[in-house]
Design brief:
The protein is an alpha/beta fold. The chain folds into 3 domains: 78 residues, no CATH class; 92 residues; 65 residues, no CATH class. The protein has 9 helices and 6 strands, in the order E-E-H-E-E-E-E-H-H-H-H-H-H-H-H. Strand 4 and strand 5 form a beta hairpin.
Amino acid sequence: MVKVYARDGSETWVLIHVEVQGEPEEAFAERMYIYQYRLRDRYGIDVVSLAVLADTRKGFRPTTFHYERWGCELTFTFPTAKLMDWEACWAELEASDNVFALVVMAQIQAKRVKNDATRKDTKVALIRLLYERGYSREQILRLFNIIDWMIQLPKNLDPEFAQAVYAIQEEKHMPYVNTIERLGIEKGRQEGEQLGIEKGRHEAELCALKEKRETVRHLMSFGVLNDEQIAAATGLALDEITQLRIEDKH
């Protein structure tokens, strides 16, 4: 919701609804109309509906919802932006300092590039552009998160990508978070799991040893078996059984 000023100087509040559609949908225009009238009914102010079409089907370009019955007719139109239309303007996107240019480039590449190694190289190239445009630290971090989410890589390529970003970071002397942090978190999680397994195993061994010692003490209290027989029955070392006898005497 934003407050805007008309050309005559008057002010008004407008609710802007932006719908990002990743794949073609037959009933998309009707859904845009439903969102429009529900928002208008709830808030009682003007609603401007915009559609961002992020799919790759050239013919999917809904702009209008219309129905007519028994003299009752309704037509709802809304503007759209087809991201793939910008594929032909790649050089313009690369030269633009508009933050959304990088987002559009990332979406186009995410849809078009399927080879994992090529996706990694493409992602690195976009991150380099991000660092070269002189954005603020907050803008860099936010845009990096978006690009990292849009162009996802298999885990085996994450280290190569992280190393490439490290090199860019050192070259540009600029901040960086996300994938490297994620790798660190993942590594920490794996190490934590391994540590937990080892700790659990150690605790289980201590518990088993404690139970063995209690069993040995129980058998010794009967005075029927000698130490060698107790060792054979419980699996506890003979010298430990001897030590237990000494401890019990004290």
